[in-house]
Inverse folding.
């Protein structure tokens, strides 16, 4: 009995008991557990948020983590769901970015198209305006054109028209003609003159000496209630004898000497 008891005691004595060999793949007692090569799930979750990781990289990392996880300590279902949710979010963000890029490109193309259309329309509008202005200018040939100035034209018959504006002045009027040398060649009294704009035919008055054909400058004065003569506003009026184009703009020829852009005509008189 004593011998048997010793044998039993020896069997349970740690100092005499033989230690069993560890099973393949089993962790050694007291040794630290060695993780697999993959990063912990929380690390992957953090990396998925970085701006440098795309959809394909995220999916490859997730698959690698599943392949290399510890069979004795598999990934928690909640972590798996969280990572799948993050993957879905990344996918949606990528799709949204592509959609926004496409919209931005479309908006840029539309803006360029609108600018091109505006430029084309402006060019066509300018061309149309020039065409209309040219047709209007052609229609004035043979009529009397009026512009700002003090030039009078006398034809071979001694006729010529001047146009004045006396405003509120009324009374006796006086016309003085000056030749190209600055010499006064004639003066006549007209009237009574009413206030406002009025035209006078030079051939209706007797000039001493008679007016020769050509171009003159003139002044028009009004004396109110027997007072002194005061100069009034004058215009250049003459028959439009032709038209020419200058840089696409119609230029009217008044008489034989004056070139006036169509835009500077104040009136056209028949």
């Amino acid at each position: 009995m004593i011998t048997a008891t010793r044998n039993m005691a020896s069997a349970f004595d740690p100092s005499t008991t033989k230690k069993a060999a560890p099973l393949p793949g089993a962790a050694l007692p007291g040794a630290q557990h060695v993780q697999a090569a993959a990063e912990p799930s929380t690390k992957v979750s953090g990396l998925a948020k970085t701006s440098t990781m795309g959809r394909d990289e995220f999916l490859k990392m997730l698959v690698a983590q599943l392949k290399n996880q510890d069979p004795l300590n598999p990934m928690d279902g909640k972590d798996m769901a969280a990572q799948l949710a993050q993957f879905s979010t990344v996918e949606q963000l990528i799709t949204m970015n592509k959609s926004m890029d496409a919209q931005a490109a479309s908006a840029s193309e539309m803006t360029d198209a609108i600018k091109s259309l505006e430029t084309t329309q402006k060019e066509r509008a300018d061309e149309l305006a020039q065409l209309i202005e040219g047709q209007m200018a052609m229609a004035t040939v043979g009529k009397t054109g009026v512009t700002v100035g003090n030039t009078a034209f006398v034809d071979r018959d001694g006729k010529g028209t001047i146009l004045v504006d006396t405003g509120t002045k009324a009374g006796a009027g006086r016309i003085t003609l000056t030749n190209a040398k600055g010499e006064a060649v004639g003066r006549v009294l007209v009237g009574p003159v009413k206030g406002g704009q009025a035209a006078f035919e030079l051939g209706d008055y007797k000039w001493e000496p008679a007016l020769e054909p050509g171009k003159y400058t003139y002044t028009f004065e009004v004396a109110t209630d027997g007072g002194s003569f005061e100069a009034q506003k004058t215009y250049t009026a003459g028959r439009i004898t032709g038209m020419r184009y200058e840089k696409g703009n119609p230029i009217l020829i008044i008489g034989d000497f004056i070139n006036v852009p169509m835009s500077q005509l104040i009136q056209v008189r028949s």
Summary: The chain has two domains: 37-102, 142-269. The longest helix spans residues 77-140. The two ends are 157 Å apart (CA to CA).
